[in-house]
Structure formats: structure tokens, C-alpha cells
Amino acid sequence: MKKYRHPEIKNVTLADVMQALADPCRIKIVRHLLNEPERPFACNEIPLRIAKATRSHHFDVLRTSGLIQTRVEGTKSLTSLRQAEIEKRFPGLWKLISRS
Amino acid sequence: MKKYRHPEIKNVTLADVMQALADPCRIKIVRHLLNEPERPFACNEIPLRIAKATRSHHFDVLRTSGLIQTRVEGTKSLTSLRQAEIEKRFPGLWKLISRS
DNA sequence: TTACTAGTTCGTTATTGATCGAACTTAATA
DNA sequence: TATTAAGTTCGATCAATAACGAACTAGTAA
Description:
CATH architecture of chain A: Orthogonal Bundle
Helix content of chain A: 40-55%
CATH class of chain A: Mainly Alpha
Number of strands of chain A: 3
Shape of chain A: globular
Structural class of chain A: alpha+beta
Distance between the termini of chain A: 37 Å
Oligomer: homodimer
Number of helices of chain A: 5
CATH superfamily of chain A: Winged helix-like DNA-binding domain superfamily/Winged helix DNA-binding domain
CATH topology of chain A: Arc Repressor Mutant, subunit A
Number of domains of chain A: 1
Largest sheet of chain A: 3 strands, antiparallel
Strand order of the largest sheet of chain A: 1-3-2
Order of helices and strands of chain A: HHEHEEHH
């Protein structure tokens, strides 16, 4: 079973999250999660026209930047936003993404 | 005399500005400008330990993304934020950058 | 005219990053 | 015990990017 690593948010810089969001695919992922913030999604529930290796890569980038968290449930990896933590560290970021 | 090109803000995407801000140097530049938003700065007034070709490159990236505007005055190029336009298109972006 | 200053452009190098197919792992299920 | 499903990892390719020195341009000043 995969053990995901999640950074402490205090170690995440603004440049880190900007970098993580500097890709249209990853913005799509985050926006999809923002539509139902309470519900965790499996990777391939989010519609993207990319190979699954690429998909895995993008989730990894988002995870490493602290924006999302992933837990394993059976054969799936369920991903959700680290909403409250990120909102505290980067106030207004979620709103910016969902509205712009 | 150099003729700078500035994009229309409506053609700028969130991914574009995230990309432009995905670099510590460029974040420093923008934060410097945010400290005195009314005052335009010449490129080398902003302290950065990089070669001038690199400096020119970073200003170009910020300009192309629509975040800054540049006008020529004598031998200098004066740069300022496109503050109101960007605030309208990406509400909360400036606050996010200055506070996080 | 000459020299200086500010900044751009060019050519190059090195690094990062997006993308994919193929092979792999782990858990659930037939 | 296969088989399937979800996702990761590996290795490769290709594009984009950061960085620099050197040469260049345009304006200002000596």
C-alpha cells in the first residue's frame, strides 16, 4: 500500500503553490475538487484527457505542494483539498481559483 | 526606442499568471512594486542578485502575463503594476501576494 | 564626437517539466 | 487462484525555462 507524503503547510511557499497551479490540468483538478470540497475523489473520477501516468504525475505535484491530501481506501486513492490549512496560510487562494 | 507590448487582460488566464509568479525572483519583483504601487520603478532599482539579461527576462515574463506595464522615459524603462485591471480580472491576487 | 547608462537581444548551456507506454504493486473480486 | 482495477514507477522523448556573457541600441551627458 502506497504511503503518501504530505508536507507541512508552514514549509510551503507562495512560489511553490504558484508553480503547482501553473498548469491548466492541475487547475482543472483543483477546480473540480472545489466544486464539492467535502467529497474526496479518486484520481480518474476527474475528467482529463491525459494518460494515467501523466495524471498520477499531476496529482503528485499538487500533493507535494500541499494543496491536496490523499488517503488510500481499498484499491482507490481518495484525494481532497487541504482546504482549511491552505486557506489559513494563503488566505483568498481558493476563492481566487474558483472565481477567476 | 523599445516598443513594449502589453496583452489585453481579458486574454490572460489564471494559469498564465500562476506561471508568471512561479518563480521567486518574479515574486520579489511584484512584492517590491506592491510596496509602493503608485511609483514606477526602473528595472535595476529592484534589488536582485542576477545578471541584467536575466533581469530583463523576468520583467518580460511579467509583462507578457499582463501583471506589469512598462513605459520608456529617457534612458530608463519605468515599470508599474497593472493594479486595477488585474484586481478586476483576478480579485484578491494582489492581496494574496502581499500577505502570503 | 565620445563615453556612459539602461535595457534588449542573441546564442548557449543546463535544468526542469509534461507526456507517454510499459511494467509493476496492491487490493478486491470472480 | 486467476483476473481486474487503480495507481505508481521507470525510462525515454521533447519542449520550455532560467541563467549568463557578449554584443547591440537608444538616449543622455561630457
